[in-house]
Amino acid sequence: MLKSISRTLLGAAFVGGAFMPHAFAETSINALFMAQAAYSEADVRAMTEAFSKANPDIKVNLEFVPYEGLHDKTVLAQGSGGYDVVLFDVIWPAEYASNNVLVDVSARITEEMKKGVLPGAWTTVTYDGKSYGMPWILDTKYLFYNKEILEKAGIKSPPKTWDELAEQAKIIKDKGLLATPISWSWSQAEAAICDYTTLVSAYGGDFIKDGKPAFQSGGGLDALNYMVTSYSSGLTNPNSKEFLEEDVRKVFQNGEAAFALNWTYMYNMANDPKDSKVAGKVGVVPAPGVAGKSEVSAVNGSMGLGITTASKHPEEAWKFITFMTSQQTQNQYAKLSLPIWASSYDDPEVTKGQEELIAAAKLGLAAMYPRPTTPKYQELSTALQQAIQESLLGQAKPEDALKSAAENSGL
Amino acid sequence: MERRSLAFTIFIHAAALLLAVVILAPVLWLFVMSISPTADLSAKPLRWWPAEVDFSRYALLLSSVENSAGAAFTASLWNSLKIAGMATIAAIALAIPAGWAVSRTPQVGWSLSMVIATYMLPPVALAVPLYMGLAYFGMLNNIFGLALVYLTILAPFTTWLMKSGFDAIPREIEASAMIDGASLFQTLRIITLPLAAPVVATSALFALLLAWDEFFYALLFTSDLRAKTLTVAIADLAGGRVSDYGLIATAGVLAALPPVLIGLVMQRALISGLTSGGVKG
Amino acid sequence: MSGSWMTTRAWLLMLPLLAVMISVIGWPLVDTVRLSFTDARLVGTEGSFVGLDNYARMLSGANFQRTLVTTTWFAVISVAAEMVLGVLAALLLNQQFYGRTVLRALMILPWALPTVVNATLWRLIYNPEYGALNAALTQAGLLDAYRSWLGEPNTALAALIVADCWKNFPLVALIALAALQAVPRDITAASMVDGAGPIARFRFVILPYLVGPLLVALVLRTIEAFKVFDIIWVMTRGGPANSTRTLSILVYQEAFSFQRAGSGASLALIVTLLVTVLAVAYAALVRKAAGSAS
Question: How far is C195 from chain B (nearest CA, A)?
């Protein structure tokens, strides 16, 4: 028995060794994506298949990791020349540029791209005047609401301000429709920073002023105070503090949230009767504003595709990136993530069936507020995540928590 | 056998039942999740047994359609098998001579103690230079590179177990063979190794299970299908982004199957291995 | 055959093992020591010598102290619980009852389950909205509302410890059971004739047989608990509000997320030192116990 086991293993090891993927005549490139919000894994695979059909000499190997692993994987793979194309979040170009992770592709960007792509999208890939890739996912957090619950509560229109959101949630709670009407993604992760940034933009706050942290007072503090009040008043689902975006979607789809802050992708997923109990009842508006300060609020949650400095096939990698970010591809897959191209928003092929989302996007995308651009973003974000969670859990007062976050931010 | 009161007998059976439930419930639940439709898993109140048993996720994960989620999973399954297999074979190959040497020549035993002491090192203490070293030799994201690193986790254990095994084989047997003119290697091959075969088997099983379980180095040193192991693939699935809990559970069942089967079938060998080190202190 | 030839031959036979260990463990360890005195980053700069700066900064940081406390709690409680539960389970499995063989075989299940699978499983069980634990407790009437087990600092660490214990106490049980089976039956019988009660019998007759193997298990489990990474990485990543962040997670963050290889290395060495001190103290205990047992 044992002998046969070890013989099988020995065989497996050697056979495996012999069949290691080796180079064919074609060029093979590796691309890193995330298994998460925005384009689904299935969409990315389908796009890639279309690319391979058009370019039979280029083989693209896809790799998907959770968003939480995307940054570390990209950096770690530099040592092995692992990836040619990587998906990167809007917050990383600063660090990637200073650590020489991504190739400066400014020279490759054509006039047509420059003119056609929305200006807001370009901020995703630009650092210090240079472009480190092409924007691909143009995304911000919207306020989703359950039309049926709002109707039952006698609420005519979704909230325009964050205070209104709290009032409406209170009505829903008091009428016994839902115990905790609002869901957020406040897990100790980047997701919490995105929700926080949305509020910071509503309250007109600043993350950094003159190179020094500025979120400890003014809008930054107001934003956190809003979160804490919403949490402690019982209007927010207390489990939000361990939710990521997919948990929020699950709760919303199950009809257990009247309001939820989430990315574009939730609109069509929550409207799919196969998986969702609230299909047809999904409303979406830009995240609200604050009276006297802002009309709407939005975080820049866009992401881009770039070529790593470790890539041995930058030409093929760029070809793949241009295909993935082309207007044709993006229009075709515009259900989970909206195109970066300005004219797409008036294209009936794109807008059909999701007019409400497009309307919200026009306002939201124009208001996108950036998270701070600094090579030390990871440290700043980690410190802020801790501050947010400590405040929510009542371990520290928001002002104290933000003060210590400023001290630990590495800035 | 001592005589027991009825109350005590009932108590023992109740306790045994409790222990069985504690051990089995989580494992069974993992399996139930893997065959439940998605809707059942987010139902309130929760359904403990699916209305309709659904094995489709197994087919999905084990499918080999190119560039599919299934292909990614099966690739990591193969990687885990290859890496664990190679590391185990190498660990046994190093352990047999080293274990014999320490058993027969206690003067060199301190070096084995040093080797075993490396177990105390947290992997994070070695990770940065190892990462840079593997990068230098082009062995990042490579099954051979990872197997080499695993070898250093397995070899101290296998050597220790082999040494205990050889200790139990009297030197006189070897000595008489040598007197008959056999060389050292002949003696080892013909006399000692067959006697130590059960220990070799136990050591190999332990090594396999250890390698199969490893996560930290695999997380750092692999990046895609060429070397990514099963543990990393599962952690990726469980990272909070896959909303189908059943799929996560299915991956868990498939990853657990090989070690659990080995554990159940080879129980006797494993327990003797667990205790041989322990009892002798 | 001369003794010196025997020793030389032994060294030759040890050579492959030692070569591998020195090149794949020894050299990186030395290099970690070197790195810990520099401000090297993971990619890019080689870094320059900064003396003991890294150590001073890491040791004085609030992060380190808090993480050390968390790690110690995790290690002490989970290992203690595993020992107690393991011995109790072993005593039970040493009794006569229906299905004993099956139950003994089942004990191997949690231990054979890969750590990452175990963590994933428990993460699903603890899910605040759809988890089995919330469902079971509410359906049994023990809980009136669903709870966020991994989202509250006062339950998150406990929830992790339960998951860790469930996987590891069966191992202790199997080791203890093997030791129990080695207790000669006439000794227990004799002690019963002497009129010793069950507790006295355990303390004076059975325990001496258990001490040696259990101490070894204790040492191994404590070292592992101190190094814990996998289960926490998969279940909480150190949250909520860093209440489950252990030393290994902190080192990972410093060296890999923030890419500060230098200070990460110094932190890793501090952890290594702690584990070593612990292990040496334990080893002394084991030796003492072994001495008194024989």
Answer: 14
Dihedral sign from CA coordinates of C272, C278, C279, C280? positive
Q: Do A246 and B243 touch (CB under 8 A)?
A: yes
Read out DSSP for A114-136?
HHHB-HHHHTTTEETTEE-SEEE
Partners of C256 on chain A (C-beta within 8 Å) are 72, 75-76
Instruction: Tell me whether residue B254 is in a domain.
Output: yes
Q: Which of B8-17, B20-29, B95-104, B168-177 has the lowest mean pLDDT?
A: B168-177
Residue B152's identity, in one-letter code, is T
pLDDT-derived band at B253, boundaries 50, 70, 90: very high
Is the Cβ of B148 closer than 8 Å to some Cβ of chain C? yes
- For chain B, the domain total comes to 1
A185 vs B: CB within 8 A? no
3-state secondary structure of A33: strand
Domain boundaries, given as residue ranges, for chain C: 1-34, 62-293
A-C contacts at Cβ under 8 angstroms: 74
Name all domains of chain A by residue range, CATH numbers in brackets. 26-139+301-362 (3.40.190.10), 142-299+376-408 (3.40.190.10)
Pairing, β A303-307 against β A85-89: antiparallel
Confirm if C128 and A242 have CB atoms less than 8 A apart. yes
pLDDT at A223: 97
**Distance from C92 to chain B by nearest Cα, in Å?**
7
The Cα B119–Cα B14 span in angstroms is: 40
Percent of chain A clearing pLDDT 70 (strictly above):
93
Is the pLDDT at A92 greater than 50? The verdict is yes
| Averaged pLDDT in 10-residue chunks for chain C of 294 residues | 81 95 94 92 79 90 91 96 96 92 92 94 94 94 91 94 96 90 79 74 82 85 92 92 94 89 92 89 77 56
pLDDT for the residue numbered B152 = 96
List the single range of A161-165, A274-278, B25-29 with lowest mean pLDDT. A274-278
Chain B hits for A65, Cβ within 8 Å: 236, 239
If DSSP codes are grouped into helix, strand and coil, which group holds residue C235?
helix
- Among the partner residues A75, A187, A392, nearest to C42 by beta-carbon distance: A75
A59 touches chain B (CB under 8 A): no
Residues 6+ apart with CB under 8 A from B200: B92, B96, B162, B165, B193
Per residue in A219-263, pLDDT tens? 999 999 999 999 999 999 999 999 999 999 999 999 999 999 999
CA dist A263 and A216 (Å) reads 27
Question: So what's the pLDDT on residue A18?
Answer: 41
CA distance C7 to chain A (A): 32
Identity of residue C276 = T
Q: Is there a domain that residue B225 lies in?
A: yes
Mapped to the 3 state alphabet, what secondary structure does A366-401 carry?
HCCECCCCCCCHHHHHHHHHHHHHHHHCCCCCHHHH
Q: Do C128 and A239 touch (CB under 8 A)?
A: yes
Q: What are phi and psi of B206, to 5 degrees?
A: -60, -45
Residue with tokens 């339960």: C162
B84 in a structural domain: yes
Of residues A247, A378, A386, nearest to C242 (C-beta): A386
Q: CA-to-CA distance for A159 and A168, rounded, in angstroms?
A: 7
Architecture of domain C62-293: Orthogonal Bundle (1.10)
Does residue B39 lie in a domain region? no
What does the DSSP assignment read for B8-35?
Answer: HHHHHHHHHHHHHHHHHHHHHHHHHHHT
The pTM assigned to this predicted structure is 0.90
Range of the structural domain that residue B181 is part of: 65-280
CA dihedral for C246, C252, C258, C263, sign (positive or negative): positive
Subunits with at least 3 CB pairs below 8 A relative to chain C?
Answer: A, B
